Amino acid sequence: MTRSNPSLLDHATRDLAEFASGLAFNRIPANVADRIKTSILDSIGCCLFGMTLPWTQKVQAMVEEQGGSPVASLFGCGRKTSAADAALVNATAGHAFELDDIHKESIVHPGSIALPVAVALAEKTGRRHGRDLMTAIVAGYEIGTRVGNAATMDLFFRGFHPQGTSGVFVAAATAGRMLGLDAHRMQHALGIVGSQAAGLMAAQEGAMVKRFHSGRAAQSGVYAALLADKDFTGITDVLEAPYGGYLSTYSGKPNPARLTDGLGTVWETGKIGYKPHASVTSIHAALDALAQLMQEHRLQPDDMAGIDVGVSHMTYVHCAWEYKAQGVTAAQMNLFYSLAVMAHDGMAFVEQYRPERLADPRILALIARTTARVDPRIDAMGPAFRHAAVVTVTSASGSVYTREILHRRGSPESPLGPADIEVKFRNIVKPCLSAGDADTVIGLVDGLDRLDDIQPLLDILAAPRA
């Protein structure tokens, strides 16, 4: 990365640190505050459900074996550990089932990182006003997504997982704001956490460790902020450094201007989207298109002689690899499996990714009749359309049906509203919360900016469950 325009580069880390440390609730626009409440509710649901899953429980068991100062709650357990380890476990849970919110340009799921970090440090520090929590989470969203924007998709194409790499900046900014770091210490927190960025995309093809990337990002952010609070120093130009900096190392084609474009006036938090399907976001448009074709033409799986899907190059690399029933993670990341369960069940949610479904002969038979390809028309539209898809179904009788969807359901361009997220929340917390507790959480989050003490919410998050 060359310094062709030094004005865009020389002080980006400092400027982002000043923004994060100085952010006050009254500076957050009302629509952004409303959006972050929706994200918080969505993230709570993801975390609570994620705590019921075996890969999260393995991380939890490791943490509990090691012990730790009991200051922050492990969700759904009735037990506490250190703030950093609570963030590790709870953020692993938040990303544990491909349900967490998504910022399209940065390819970061900020909610599954920011919420666990903010809650852990609220418990540790006693800063429990709802506005403190919301402000810290917005700071994390704004900083982390901007880092991801500037890294561009090239970071992903190099094989890095944005959740574990750009996601560390979500965590550090959230943690630093919860600790009340001044701008100088916040800059060092970002400079510390940038050295902790890690996560490889090969994890998508069957490994539990993909979920762990989110947890480690959260833990690293807490460590970074705690160290900076003790005047431990980091790389003060970690984002813009031409050698060994985050952008110059993780992305061969960065766009540094995206770090600070419209900072404080254009709110990346307002561009957050949500997931109606329990799968990687990149294939949601294809799932929506197939569902529409099935409904419109009353198609059943046996009616489908073939399914052809045109997608962007990014989606093809990300999701169109050969399906081999490698595990739940692989199924959720795979275009062919998800299309097949959508065809058979009319949905791709929690039940469709149970281990016993992964090698269903009926699903494998439809996968064998499904093809995918890079559609140059979609790539020509630019990165903003990388989730677009065109699905063509050829029926057993020879009829051909096609549907193109440019913006998936749940994206900012085709949004899910607060009522939709409430329905999703109730569905995913059924194994975790009573209907009454679910109602209480929804009400508390809706009034979070007016809540002087979030302890009633913390009590529900922490309560032990079977």
Explained architecture:
With 466 residues, the chain is of the alpha+beta class. It folds into two domains: 6-271, Orthogonal Bundle (2-methylcitrate dehydratase PrpD), CATH 1.10.4100.10; 281-405, 2-methylcitrate dehydratase PrpD (60s Ribosomal Protein L30, Chain: A, 2-Layer Sandwich). 50% of the residues lie in helices and 7% in strands.
What is the CATH topology of the largest domain?
2-methylcitrate dehydratase PrpD
Number of helices: 20
CATH homologous superfamily title of the largest domain:
2-methylcitrate dehydratase PrpD
The coarse overall form would be globular
Percent range of helical residues: 40-55%
What's the rounded overall pLDDT mean? 96
Q: Which class of secondary structure composition applies to the elements?
A: alpha+beta
Question: What's a quick, concise take on this entry?
Answer:
This protein has 20 helices and six strands.
What is the topology?
Blueprint: H1 6-9, H2 12-22, H3 30-50, H4 54-66, E1 72-74, E2 79-81, H5 83-94, H6 111-125, H7 130-157, H8 167-179, H9 183-193, H10 209-229, H11 246-250, H12 284-297, E3 304-311, H13 313-319, H14 328-333, H15 335-345, H16 361-367, E4 370-374, H17 376-380, E5 389-395, E6 400-405, H18 418-428, H19 435-446, H20 455-462
Parallel strand pairs: 3-4
Antiparallel strand pairs: 1-2, 3-5, 5-6
Helix pairs in contact: 2-7, 2-8, 2-9, 3-5, 3-6, 3-18, 3-19, 4-5, 5-6, 5-10, 6-7, 6-8, 6-10, 7-8, 8-9, 8-10, 9-10, 12-15, 15-16
